Amino acid sequence: MGDDTDLLSFFAGCDRAAQRPWPRYRLSEGQWLDLATHLTIADWTLLGLWGDGDEVHVALSDAQSGEMAVASLRCRDRRFPSLASVRLGALRLERAVRDLFGLSAEGSEDVRPWLDHGQWPERHPLAAAPAAAGTSRRATDYAFLPAKGEGLHQIPVGPVHAGIIEPGHFRFHCNGEAVVRLEARLGYVHKGTESLMAGKPVAAAAKLAGRLSGDSTVATALAFARAVEAATATEPPPRAVWLRALMAELERVANHLGDIGAICNDAAFVFMQSEMTVLRERVLQVAGAAFGHRLMMDRVIPGGVAHDLAGESAAGIAALTRELRPHFAKLMAIYDGKPSLIDRTVATGVVRPDLVRRFAAGGFVGRASGRAFDARKRPGYAPYDALDFAVPVLSDGDVHSRLMIRAKEIEASLGLIEQILARLPAGAIATPIPPTAGEGLALVEGFRGDILAWVALAADGTVRRGHLRDPSWFQWPLLEVAIEGNIVADFPLCNKSFNCSYSGHDL
Amino acid sequence: MWKTLARNLGTRPPAIDAPDLEPAHLAELAARLDQAARKRLGRSLAIREVDAGSCNGCELEIHALNNPVYDLERFGLRFVAAPRHADVLLVTGPVTANMREALERTYAATPDPKWVVAVGDCAGDGGLFSGSYAVVGGVSAVIPVDLHIRGCPPSPVELLRGLLALVDMNSRKG
Question: Which structural domain, as residue segments, surrounds residue A93?
């Protein structure tokens, strides 16, 4: 095998399952080990890794051909060979698989529990036969990686934070003001979302998908809907496809506006926060008037959308883009003209391009460090193939770059919204999902990055197993790198520039 | 920036008028708030927000209360960084098993008299997440709740209504 083998030909001899639109292969343990070996030389991206009964699935994509595939291994003795040594992004996913399914990644360097804090009534709750909870573990018991040296001290932060943000624990090892090591402990908002999806009709499961991470409700519901549509070979009506993109771009603009304001606020420039929150509020009000919900929750459903663009609201959205563009440009000129602000954001929280590639981090985290990946372009999905937009890429990987990627994406999204409004097809907004068995995979670009959705439907059309991989899984570990060597006071700034999802990650 | 600030000075602030109070909120509070507590806290309340398991949707709308359109501080309400400085805990989410202890400890760290406002449908009874192995239930399954603001998520206006009802009840005499 050479390193130019493309993904699908690598799996040519494997047993193929009926997954759409990309194939899934059932591997023997030997084939899985071959895959692990080949990953050391292949330029394939790990998109996700999740459990399913006594099987473990890994989703991969081939950057060259743009193809995707899922490889599955049925675990003997509840073990599978770890992929974390060849794809770092798999490390925490494998820990989650063990917590939820009791399937252990053999050879992994990190076998600490991740989502399971010892507080659930049972262990391995998603396994066919969950285990008894056993001896109770205190919620605070966790072996943080040590940092040793003269004068080092620890700062524990969270899970309840000072701001209005989600819960998680950050453990800093510091030398005076400088951060020597940061380690995050997550899982506090684990709600068992995937266990609740099982056995539900797709419409009910879609509501749960829309609440994986509230700020990405449109994008996550879209990823789930596309996976269901792939599984059932359903084609949503053209108007629905375009309305989904309209909502997704409004969501992107609203979140990026909020993030830019919040980053500036953490550099003590409150003016920008105040102005940006007013713009964000305008977007949410227009979205609320157009789709009947400010965050557009439950508007994207399997088969289409649940809400047509109300009456005059297309004109309202058009007016919003006209108003937003010059106002936003003026604010960005102010950002650009404040040396004391730029001094805080430039060269702060740097993530090197090679690390972003190794973790396959998407969204503004990836694109600020030279990784051009955007799921709207590749693998691509309708209607973006028919729309004209640029994907901004920068290479410095600092807070400033992540902020500027957002700024450029806001401009691009405003352009997309105008194109969508100009070409919005007429017709139905939803088509029924036939109750049938099937497996589907989808990759959708949320504001934070690419969201993977995988669904397996039972013969009666209910969800047998649904899995959602939030972009934050591959971004959280990089935050720990970004803060290294920076001062503690810059942590909020770095953290905000990442704005990873806790709920999306914790499932 | 100075131009923007000067222009803002010359125009009407973007803030909306205070919304009308919800009789249901007032009734819920009347049954809960004791007279002594009302007297001591008056019209100025410090709020500590606690996400006990939410999807972050409620946090987005709670955040919006601080923007110049809703401008919560003009009503005497402000968010504080620590439970020790708080009069009110604003709690979102179905309470997850993994957040239960943190919520209990935050409640214990809040000085008396204190009130708890549960925000969002999930904070009521667990909402869509009730029945999960990882969810304990609504906020009242862990700490006593004085007011529940419904919605998924409640809009900033709905949040404002609930919080203003709290201030209103608190400043009533007799």
Answer: 7-128
